[in-house]
Amino acid sequence: MNRRILLLGGITEALALARRLGPQHVYSLAGIGRVPQDLQCQVRVGGFGGAEGLAGYLREAGISLLIDATHPYAAQISRNAAKAARSTGIACWALRRPAWQAQKGDDWREVDDWAGLIGALKPFRRPLFTLGREPLQHLDEIPPGQFWTLRALEACPGNARCEVIGARGPFRIDDERALFQRRCIDVLISKNSGSVATEPKLEVARELGLPVLVLRRPVLPGVDRIFESLHDLAAALDL
Q1: 38-63 pLDDT, tens per residue?
Q2: What global pTM score does this model have?
Q3: Is there a single domain that holds both residue 134 and residue 177?
Q4: CA-CA distances (angstroms) from residue 59 to 42, 53, 78, 132, 143?
Q5: Which of 22, 98, 114, 224 lies at a 20 to 30 A Cα distance from 151?
Q6: How many folded domains does the chain comprise?
Q7: Domain range spanning residue 116?
Q8: Do 10 and 79 belong together in one domain?
Q9: Which residue intervals of 89-229 are DSSP H helices?
Q10: DSSP bridge pairs for 163
Q11: In contact, 214 and 109? CB cutoff 8 Å
């Protein structure tokens, strides 16, 4: 089929798909993290300027299929993608990982937003944040009785009551156990990304009987086709 794909990246599976794309296709990254240098397809870094800007790019670049493989919590980008595809009349497909499901022994407590999270954190002293960079905006709000450990893709300065660890998955369960023990973690804060690479932290919390504060997944827009696995999407693309 003669088509040109714009792949919006953000999850590990997106890069794996990009490695299968030829030079006529475009892999788009928001600019956070490392830019791959070994792809045959074109790589575009940076935003588009909202839904209207993305629609303009789709027309100018002659894109015939838009694939949203962004993070499940990148809701605004997904909304922009769906809107831009509708306005240009091209198909929009999405790769959306199934959410993790609580298992026997889990103590999961869903929260809707940052305010709800801070309220739920009050009884604890040594939280481990695995939400990316967002908590960095709130370091001056750390209560006197808490010390935060914050894990993000890149290490950066914290403060007297917060240490920031730079680390990239996949994570080994033994390393996660050591981290929880070394930092005396008493509560885990996580998005429900559904990623196998970051799931070991949930296993450790279960083993230790620790609560997990889970940021509720946003509602994402409807698109033409939704795939739950890279295998199924690649098969539909005949890659």
Answers
A1: 899 999 999 999 999 999 999 999 99
A2: 0.89
A3: yes
A4: 17, 10, 18, 33, 50
A5: 98
A6: 2
A7: 108-215
A8: yes
A9: 114-121, 173-182, 200-208
A10: 149
A11: yes
